[in-house]
Design goal:
Structural class: alpha+beta
Strand order of the largest sheet: 10-9-11-12-14-15-16-17
Mean pLDDT: 79
Number of helices: 10
CATH architecture of one domain: 2-Layer Sandwich
């Protein structure tokens, strides 16, 4: 958990950083194959010694042919009912079909029949090889989705479909922050409410501009203001949140909480410029230990103090991605049940991915190092050797979510994104999934927040891709405003 001494891995872009999924104990699929193969071999060996009965064909020359087309070697056979069976010309022209029965002898052997017993044994030997000399424990996690994940800290199982509230209880057990479950619950309800409003925004008339600008000088959409108020009201009702900071407000908002313990920062509706054309948007949040007094100082300081961070993505489905400092989990909103359910535990960012996500339209303003890097990876001249393609939504949550699942990286080379509201919480989510978040020179979570609305460049995604980008140097663009 943040606040504890950081391990060396936490200061690197190691692809398996702090991912408990790699500590999961589960039966190897090769172990299961070994058991199945041995059982099949045993069954086959017993069946070979038993009386057999299978279809054969008799040629005009009097030879018997087995189902594989091989001529039987035994000279004496017993055909039952062959004289009464019609010719099966569609299968074997001018041949008769009968049923061959008897006991196996060395002289009676259909070509290839020995494979019935040998093939399962060979499968078993191969499975045994994979069990003994296959991937060691702690190696790369399986790529196939796991239907069951194990929480390394508590040892409790989390089946897919588990409601968010139950996962939160497991993740926070024994941390001293069990009370934060109520704060996560407030964020859960807020994101569900925002998702419902977005789905009906054009119907109820809450699209378009609010007619105001926020502290960033950006035009506020109606849903920016509505989402901001929804989050503030829900967090205030917990009685545990003493102060919140919003991207939409200049200063923190202090609540008269009964037992204030936590400070919460959020971007209520990231990508809100996309609302009117129904493109994806999101909510980004992070939870901190409040400290002595509920004010802006609750947020200032080293960025690795996060307790919990995550985001909601409002798209074809509503997803919620969250980390408690022990791996990253993906939930999907089930609208019929009205709750988020676990759909992927311990998400792992691919070490590399063939995508980069930033606005290519600004490429002529990029610094020389970034231009060289992009040119190299697009031509397949990077360290990986693959040709990269651009994927850009211009909604940070959407671009980060795709990167989390498919690899590559997303970001902005300008000091444009808010460190507290966007860069730090998203970097925390990615790091806990084995990825990396960088400002182009170093780790985002290694920086210090000195002002509430402090900005920074961001390059976040696959660990190896981000490290390669950093190696080019000169990838940070100066501050520049575009219309």
């Amino acid at each position: 958990m943040p606040g504890s001494p950081l391990s060396p891995l936490m200061h690197s872009h190691h692809p398996t950083y702090c991912n408990p999924r790699l500590e999961v104990e589960r039966p190897s699929r090769w172990t299961l194959w070994l058991c199945i193969s041995c059982a099949a071999a045993l069954l086959a060996s017993t069946q070979v010694a038993q009386p057999f009965q299978f279809f054969v064909t008799r040629t005009p020359a009097g030879q018997l042919v087995n189902p594989t087309g091989a001529v039987m070697k035994r000279s004496h056979t017993e055909l039952k009912g062959s004289s009464s069976l019609p010719d099966t010309k569609e299968l074997h022209h001018n041949t008769e079909v009968g049923v061959l029965s008897g006991l196996p002898e060395t002289s009676f052997s259909a070509e290839g029949s020995w494979a019935i017993a040998v093939a399962p044994l060979l499968m078993g030997l191969f499975a045994a090889y994979k069990v003994v000399w296959g991937s060691p424990r702690g190696g790369p996690p399986p790529t196939a989705p796991q239907r069951m994940a194990t929480v390394a800290v508590t040892g409790a199982a989390l089946p897919l479909g588990t409601p968010l509230a139950e996962v939160v209880a497991v993740e926070l057990a024994g941390t001293g922050h069990e009370a934060a479950a109520a704060v996560v619950g407030a964020l859960d309800r807020s994101c569900q409410r925002i998702a419902r409003l977005l789905a009906r925004a054009n119907i109820v008339g809450v699209l378009g501009s609010q007619g105001t600008v926020n502290v960033q000088g950006e035009e506020q959409k109606q849903m920016d203001v509505i989402s901001n108020n929804i989050l503030k009201d829900a967090l205030a009702d917990t009685g545990l949140v003493g102060v919140v900071a919003s991207e939409e407000e200049d200063t923190p908002v202090v609540f008269p909480a009964a037992t204030p313990r936590y400070a919460v920062a959020f971007d209520p509706l990231d990508g809100s410029s996309n609302i009117d054309c129904s493109l994806p948007t999101g909510t980004i949040f992070s939870i901190y230990d409040m400290g002595a007094t509920p004010d802006s100082f609750s947020f200032l300081g080293p960025m690795d103090r996060l307790l919990i961070s995550g985001y909601a993505l409002y798209s074809s489905s509503t997803s919620l991605v969250i980390t408690f400092g022990k791996g990253t989990h993906l939930f999907t909103l089930d609208p019929e049940k009205g709750q988020f359910v676990l759909t992927k535990a311990y998400v792992t960012v691919p070490t590399r991915g063939p995508f980069y996500s930033l606005n290519d339209g600004r490429s002529f303003d990029w610094p020389e190092g970034l231009q060289r890097y992009i040119a190299d990876i697009k031509q397949g001249k990077g360290q990986w050797g693959k040709k990269y393609g651009a994927r850009y939504v211009c909604s940070l949550v959407a671009d980060i979510h795709r990167t989390l699942l498919y690899g590559g990286w997303a970001g902005n080379p300008r000091p444009h994104l808010r460190l507290l509201f966007e860069s730090a919480p998203l970097s925390y989510v990615l790091e806990q999934a084995g990825g990396a978040g960088s400002d182009g020179k170093g780790r985002i979570l290694g920086t210090t927040l000195t002002a509430l609305h402090q900005r920074s460049p961001l390059f976040a995604g696959s660990a190896a891709d981000v490290a390669e980008l950093e190696s080019y140097g000169d990838v940070q663009q100066g501050a520049q405003k575009y219309d």
